UniProtKB/TrEMBL annotation:
<dbReference type="GO" id="GO:0020037">
    <property type="term" value="F:heme binding"/>
</dbReference>
<feature type="binding site" description="axial binding residue">
    <location>
        <position position="320"/>
    </location>
    <ligand>
        <name>heme</name>
    </ligand>
</feature>
<keyword id="KW-0489">Methyltransferase</keyword>
<keyword id="KW-0808">Transferase</keyword>
<dbReference type="GO" id="GO:0016705">
    <property type="term" value="F:oxidoreductase activity, acting on paired donors, with incorporation or reduction of molecular oxygen"/>
</dbReference>
<keyword id="KW-0408">Iron</keyword>
<dbReference type="Pfam" id="PF00067">
    <property type="entry name" value="p450"/>
</dbReference>
<dbReference type="InterPro" id="IPR002403">
    <property type="entry name" value="Cyt_P450_E_grp-IV"/>
</dbReference>
<dbReference type="GO" id="GO:0032259">
    <property type="term" value="P:methylation"/>
</dbReference>
<keyword id="KW-0479">Metal-binding</keyword>
<dbReference type="InterPro" id="IPR050121">
    <property type="entry name" value="Cytochrome_P450_monoxygenase"/>
</dbReference>
<keyword id="KW-0349">Heme</keyword>
<comment type="similarity">
    <text>Belongs to the cytochrome P450 family.</text>
</comment>
<dbReference type="InterPro" id="IPR001128">
    <property type="entry name" value="Cyt_P450"/>
</dbReference>
<protein>
    <submittedName>
        <fullName>Related to pisatin demethylase (Cytochrome P450)</fullName>
    </submittedName>
</protein>
<dbReference type="GO" id="GO:0008168">
    <property type="term" value="F:methyltransferase activity"/>
</dbReference>
<dbReference type="InterPro" id="IPR036396">
    <property type="entry name" value="Cyt_P450_sf"/>
</dbReference>
């Protein structure tokens, strides 16, 4: 007999008497090797906490003091520009993937795949995801034998904090898969919403132009730019990077969710496709990309909105470890793109998108020109 299931649409339903929905994870299907658990599939709370503790510092930046510098090195350059009658259409869907894949591999291994520089999927990783595991394994197998002490990257942090080579074997593949296409999906979708909305395009450009920031912008500076943050939040809301159903198992003795008792062993799921366009939470224009909703909401409403948006990264001890890295990438890339370039969508009918839990986008063609100073 299968376990009972509850699917939640409203994020408020996920608040329980114990402060969390469940003590046990449930993603056993994410095992990469039969019988071997990783940070996503490990359902035992104590074992999960132990593994998470070994990985946490690598993702927070505390064990990787080159995090921002590494991201800065991969921000898009000028080689994709059109000028005057010189027309060079750019498929932004692939360039976003090249950027996020180079960033996550550089942060993780101290060695990017090099897709942006070559302007191609060098290892066919994007085309053949499983090949990336072999590439990653070659890199970290060498590092276990000859640890590079000059680079404080994620892999060195994993080794320093006691992960075995077999554990790292699991972590690295998941890290690359989860860390590049999810962020690329948010980047692509948010770019589309910005460049197709003159009000948003103008306002984010104005904030960037009138705010005193470094070159390139630092993460802390970007976090103090209110409209930029509203744009990023709205992009995450209206186009969640990983939209498959996520579920947790109610622990022994059961739990109470929004006043209802839920027995032990029940799977509790939240449905982002149902939650993020819910007009009861976001207003009657919930399906509209409107960053201003984050700036104009009353404090209590904003608290609810923030709490529900956080479900994009899961919650509690199951929250995505890569959240800090992803947000740093988004904070930097939008500022540098709209500070330096202008974008025009080309042939919007060709744009393709489908959801395989992670959004897969293709043929997002744009014309990119150098941004001229505004008078």
């Amino acid at each position: 007999m299968s376990s009972p299931e509850i699917q939640m649409i409203g994020g408020e339903c996920l608040e329980s008497d114990h402060g969390t929905v469940a003590a046990n994870g449930s993603n056993a299907f994410v095992r990469l090797e039969p019988g071997i658990d990783n940070i996503v599939s490990q359902r035992d709370g104590k074992l999960h906490n132990s593994l998470r503790a070994k990985m946490a510092l690598s993702h927070s930046g505390k064990d990787n003091d080159h995090l921002e510098e590494t991201i800065d090195q991969h921000l898009l350059g000028t080689k994709y520009l059109s000028a005057g009658t010189k027309y060079r259409p750019v498929d932004f869907s692939s360039k976003a993937q090249y950027f996020t894949l180079d960033v996550i591999t550089d942060i993780a291994f101290g060695k990017p795949f090099g897709n942006l520089a070559a302007d191609e999927d060098l290892h066919h990783y994007i085309e053949l995801m499983e090949l990336g595991g072999n590439i990653a394994q070659e890199i970290f197998a060498e590092r276990f034998d000859h640890e590079r002490k000059e680079r404080r990257d994620m892999l060195r942090s994993f080794i320093r904090h006691g992960l075995t080579q077999r554990e790292v074997d699991q972590v690295v593949v998941l890290q690359v898969v989860a860390g590049f296409d999810t962020t690329a999906g948010v980047l692509r979708a948010t770019m589309l919403y910005i460049v197709s909305n003159p009000r948003v395009y103008s306002r984010i450009g104005s904030e960037i132009a009138t705010t005193l920031i470094s070159t390139p912008v630092t993460d802390s500076e970007a976090r103090r730019m209110p409209y930029l943050q509203a744009v990023i939040k709205e992009g995450l809301r209206i186009h969640p990077p990983a939209a498959g159903l996520r579920f947790r198992e109610v622990p022994a003795s059961g739990d109470t969710l929004s006043g209802y008792f839920v027995p032990e062993g029940t799977w509790v799921k939240h449905n982002l496709f149902g939650l993020m366009p819910d007009p009861n939470l976001w207003g009657g224009d919930a399906k509209v990309f409107r960053p201003e909703r984050w700036l104009n909401a009353e404090p209590e409403q904003l608290r609810k909105m923030e709490a529900n948006l956080n479900l994009v990264f899961s919650w509690g001890k199951w929250q995505c470890l890569g959240k800090n890295v992803a947000m740093t990438e988004l904070n930097k890339v939008f500022v540098e793109l709209f500070r330096n370039f202008d974008f025009t969508v080309v042939d919007p009918q060709s744009l393709g998108n489908y959801n395989a839990s992670i959004h897969i986008t293709s043929d997002f063609w744009m014309r990119i020109t150098k941004r001229e100073p505004r008078m």
